[in-house]
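Ops channel
N.P.: pipeline sanity check, posting one input/output pair.
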């Protein structure tokens, strides 16, 4: 029995599939699950639209393809926006179609005014972005032979079928919750910031490094934006009672503060630190901060709790070094700008220490809610 998997692997390789291709396919489990989810939703929407004898059932299929997302919260958000946009577009389109039936010669102006009004609405409220499309299709599409109110009802019914099927597919087929995306993006943000702190620690030790903090800061901004989106999707899931997992709103705010602390540390270290005696303990403290940050992020994914005692000891050693520098008058001989950079570094590291404590509390809140 243990040889079954290797034999299967060999058979795939024997028919011309290289190991690298198989490994790449195996690493895309999330994408494959999403593809299967969409495929099942398409088939189910088509079958249900056919069963209900909807005249334009393909809109149910289109809707299923559009709204099925990688998480339940994202699917719910997409389905609500599509249903709202369709309902408004169908209502306005029905009114415009009635006007067109009464004044056929004014078809052009009616179409222009309808499109302009709904385009303005979509610009103000992006949730209604499909409203102009729905209204225009009702005016010049294949439903012009139907009564406008009937056409509007059918369009909403078709979209509703696609929405229901899409939500059901996301809920039942390889169900994925937005909470997983929150954990993933929060962990990625923490890892990026930890790498920046490691770089600054190496710089304080005088080690050579080709690390580019700016690229990491840009990646951190993207990760934080994705985290905000995932948080909104998780809130949508909780509001619909389809998930009881929640994350405190303070988590992304704390990560933003940690990013700002890293930026302040980087500014203080643009040039060589003018207090050489402070560099080694500061480097040790930044290394401890990076490790504590990674440990807190690991706790989000059910990892072990971070070592508070070791982190507190590293902070105490750093404070002792700062006090020694002050008592020995190490900063008195410094120029104003140099002294400002030294005290700016000390202030930034102290700020970082406090915000890391807040981050641990936010992570524990999240882990407690999950548990």
């Amino acid at each position: 029995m243990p040889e079954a998997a290797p034999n299967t692997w060999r058979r795939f390789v024997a028919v011309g599939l290289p190991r690298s291709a198989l490994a790449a396919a195996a690493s895309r489990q999330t994408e494959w699950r999403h593809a299967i989810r969409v495929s099942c939703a398409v088939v189910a929407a088509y079958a249900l639209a056919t069963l209900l004898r909807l005249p334009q059932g393909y809109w149910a299929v289109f809707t299923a393809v559009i709204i099925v997302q990688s998480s339940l919260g994202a699917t719910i958000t997409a389905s609500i926006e599509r249903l709202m946009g369709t309902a408004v577009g169908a209502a306005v389109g029905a009114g415009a179609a009635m006007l067109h039936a009464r004044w056929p010669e004014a078809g052009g102006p009616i179409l222009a005014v309808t499109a302009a009004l709904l385009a303005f609405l979509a610009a103000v409220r992006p949730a209604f972005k499909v409203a102009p499309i729905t209204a225009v299709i009702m005016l010049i599409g294949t439903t012009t032979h139907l009564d406008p109110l009937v056409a509007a009802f059918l369009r909403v019914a078709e979209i509703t079928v696609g929405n229901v099927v899409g939500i059901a597919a996301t809920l039942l087929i390889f169900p994925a919750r937005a909470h997983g995306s929150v954990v993933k993006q929060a962990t990625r943000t923490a890892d990026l910031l930890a790498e920046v702190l490691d770089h600054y620690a190496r710089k304080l030790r005088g080690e050579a490094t080709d690390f580019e903090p700016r690229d990491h800061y840009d990646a951190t901004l993207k990760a934080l934006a994705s985290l905000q989106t995932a948080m909104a999707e998780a809130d949508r899931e909780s509001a619909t009672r389809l998930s009881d997992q929640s994350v405190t709103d303070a988590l992304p705010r704390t990560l933003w503060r940690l990013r700002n602390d890293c930026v302040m540390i980087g500014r203080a270290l643009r040039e060589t630190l003018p207090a050489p005696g402070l560099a080694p303990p500061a480097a040790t403290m930044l290394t401890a901060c990076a490790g504590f940050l990674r440990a807190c992020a690991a706790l989000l994914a059910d990892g072990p709790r971070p070592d508070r005692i070791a982190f507190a000891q590293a902070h105490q050693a750093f404070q002792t070094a700062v006090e020694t520098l002050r008592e020995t008058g190490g900063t008195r001989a410094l120029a104003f700008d140099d002294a400002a950079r030294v005290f700016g570094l000390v202030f930034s590291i102290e700020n970082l220490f406090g915000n890391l404590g807040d981050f641990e509390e936010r992570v524990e809140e999240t882990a407690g809610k999950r548990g």
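N.P.: looks fine end to end. Residues 30-172 form one domain.
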